[in-house]
Amino acid sequence: MLIVSKSPAAVGHGRLLRGPAALPSIDVQSLAATYSQGIYMRPNQSNEGTVPAGSPLSACPDIWIAGMPVPNYQSALATATSYATQSADNITQGHPNYIYIRGKNGTAIPRTTKVQLYGVPCAAIQWPSNWANFSIPTDQDHPDGTPPIYVSSMVNLGAGTIGVAADTFVWANPQPPTDGSSHYCLITWLNNANNPFPDVLTQLDMSALITNNLQFGWRNVSMQSAQSPTIQISTQLIIPDDVSAGSREYSLQVTNNGFAPNTDGRGWTFDLTCSRTDAKGKSISIVNTAMPDQGHFVGVRCWLEPGYSATLTLNLYRNSGPVSLPGASMDITPAYYSDGTKAELEEALQRGLVDFALSHALHSAYRGGTTADIRPRPVVLLGADGLRIK
Asked: Which domains occur in the chain, in start order?
């Protein structure tokens, strides 16, 4: 309904109606203050932590979206240069979206907070009662095997310091909202004793939440269309803290066991991504590639160190042609180069752990990459994970 006002007066029922009476003006500047209740996020790039916040309230630059993992993200996104910028407003259907949460400590003492993230279908008002069903998980695996962890943290962030949550949030394969909208709202909650989940019972409660409480962030994001995977699985890549110290080299092989190879655009293709870069800041990924012949693999090298923990996402795409053989599977097999030291190599050989067939296969696959490829390098198997179709 279009509302049109007549100024200075409106006529109705044969009598003159007066307009609204003028109220005394309020000095908004005298009400403004810098947020000092803890670690905060900005509602938009023009805001430097001032409350009450002004529009736009749903353009938080401290919710950072990336299609590929950001190397050294906790330092890279905490610089003054990065703090003055923001990521693109897009999430991609069919692919992992890596999301980082940034904050600044507005107090005079170190602060700690948990961090939670929600990907909520778009709405003009984002009532907190709607958030719970839309939590986005982090890339960390729960030690007792229960469902994924949905909570990250910022720990002992110094006064006036910019920080980034310790863990990456991974939205693996967002789909268009059921109402047909083309965008989502990302909502971040800095969860700590001073900022419990909000009780929003009135309209004024909601207004206070988005204008006065900067421990909640809101960012509207558009959805980019892409081919959704026919099959998607996620698994963890972990090097525990108590494994021998130092950065060491590994190889990940993705092996086809029964899927139709891709020939002239027919058959299957796949890609592999990891939520974190390796110890040298390089992405652990296999870009969309043709399915190899049965029993063959496509691999990627990486350098990992103790304490490494990330999520691997494997997407399979079926093109035209055969579906697969019965019981087809894709295996992700990690292998370790056991020639880090002479003593380690001798131990691997004495214990019969070197996989000579795989060592030669990797030598052929990676030949020409470095001087280390002059000879096959001995590798040992560390496990396997993957998917199987019934």
From this structure: 34-224 (2.60.40.10), 231-388 (no CATH)
